């Protein structure tokens, strides 16, 4: 029996149940332990102002270290680029579509658009359409309900979450990565275990998808080198063609007035991520990020 730690939102439980089914197909019995995280408890302020890395992972990782669960199922984009000592990323299953999606009306001049992400807000502002970007918190179903109530003209959400929850038909438009660069690791799941060579680490490792791991490793290495977390205006998207990794990334000011974009190709994910991050820092990203952290 493997005990999987998970948040209690509809999307998090879908993800955990998906892993339960994958393990069952291997003949492995598992169950889900729901753990409430700091990010779940903070509802009245934008995530960017909530502070700290690991808002949606810290308590789950503490349970994993303590041994009350055997593995943790996360959305990879929520996982800090540096894992706590003693833990490892044992599997990254095959990735869903990493792009962002627009729900609601098309992005007309002056439209009210809801998002809780500085990254999305910055890129929406950068479109130059005078969009009124407003804070939107809550689970996917809550955000769609607020859209339906007319609080927003449209909202931007991860396509992967919409598809996993059966809301593919709510997507008005898939936003190209050239227009809305995704968050590092978006669309990918992460299964974290103790790095002890134990049964859970060995079994979970069978769920790893090599191409997805290579792509998100490049993205996360870029994020780590930039010193950013999931709540800063950084986008990263990697695709793998044969042995070559193509990585695209942006660092933007929250108002979208300044945006540093870059691309890098290579065969080693760590080297590719580091090289692009250093290029962005040298071309102005360091000043943008310093201003964001000082705000």
Query: What is the topology, as strand order, of the major beta sheet?
Result: 2-1-3-10-4
Shape: globular
Which CATH class of the largest domain is shown? Alpha Beta
Distance between the termini: 46 Å
Averaged pLDDT: 92
Order of helices and strands: EHEHHEEEEHEHEHEEHHEEEH
Rg to the nearest angstrom?
A: 19 Å
CATH fold call of the largest domain: D-Maltodextrin-Binding Protein, domain 2
Share in β-strands: 15-25%
CATH homologous superfamily of the largest domain - what is it? Periplasmic binding protein-like II
Overall helicity: 25-40%
Shape-level CATH architecture of the largest domain: 3-Layer(aba) Sandwich
Structure description:
This protein has helices at about 10-25, 40, 60-65, 120-125, 140-150, 160-165, 200-205, 210-225, 270-295, and strands at about 1-5, 30-35, 70-75, 85-90, 100-105, 110-115, 130-135, 155-160, 170-175, 190-195, 235-240, 245-250, 260-265. With about 300 residues, the chain is of the alpha/beta class. The protein folds into three domains: about 1-95 and about 190-210, 3-Layer(aba) Sandwich (D-Maltodextrin-Binding Protein, domain 2), CATH 3.40.190; about 100-175, Periplasmic binding protein-like II (D-Maltodextrin-Binding Protein, domain 2, 3-Layer(aba) Sandwich), CATH 3.40.190.10; about 220-295, 2-Layer Sandwich (Double Stranded RNA Binding Domain). The protein starts with a strand and ends with a helix. The mean pLDDT is about 90. Helix 8 packs parallel to helix 9 (about 270-295). It contains nine helices and 13 strands. It has a five-stranded mixed sheet, sandwiched between helices.
């Amino acid at each position: 029996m493997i005990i999987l730690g998970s948040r209690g939102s509809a999307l998090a439980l879908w993800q955990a149940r998906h892993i339960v089914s994958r393990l069952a197909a291997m003949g492995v019995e598992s169950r889900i332990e729901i753990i409430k995280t700091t990010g779940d408890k903070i509802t009245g302020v934008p995530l960017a102002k909530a502070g700290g890395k690991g808002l949606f992972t810290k308590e789950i990782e503490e349970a994993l270290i303590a041994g009350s669960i055997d593995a943790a199922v996360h959305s990879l984009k929520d996982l800090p680029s540096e894992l706590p000592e003693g833990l490892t990323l044992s599997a990254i299953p095959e990735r869903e579509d990493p792009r962002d999606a627009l729900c609601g009306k098309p992005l007309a001049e002056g439209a009210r658009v809801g998002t809780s992400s500085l990254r999305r807000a910055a890129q929406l502002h950068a479109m130059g359409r005078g969009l009124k970007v407003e804070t939107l918190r809550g689970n996917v179903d809550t955000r769609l309900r607020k859209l339906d109530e007319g609080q927003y003209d449209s909202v931007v959400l991860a396509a992967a979450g919409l598809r996993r929850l059966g809301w593919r038909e709510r997507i008005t438009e898939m936003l190209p990565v050239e227009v809305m660069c995704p968050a590092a690791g978006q669309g990918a799941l992460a299964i974290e275990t103790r790095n002890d060579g134990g049964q859970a680490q060995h079994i979970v490792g069978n769920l790893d998808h090599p191409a997805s791991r290579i792509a998100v490793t490049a993205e996360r290495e870029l994020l780590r080198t930039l010193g950013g977390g999931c709540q800063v205006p950084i986008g990263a998207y990697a695709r793998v063609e044969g042995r070559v990794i193509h990585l695209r990334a942006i660092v933007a000011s929250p108002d979208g007035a300044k945006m540093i974009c870059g691309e890098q190709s290579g065969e080693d994910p760590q080297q590719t991520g580091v090289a692009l991050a250093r290029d962005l820092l040298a071309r102005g990203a360091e000043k943008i990020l310093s201003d964001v952290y000082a705000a």
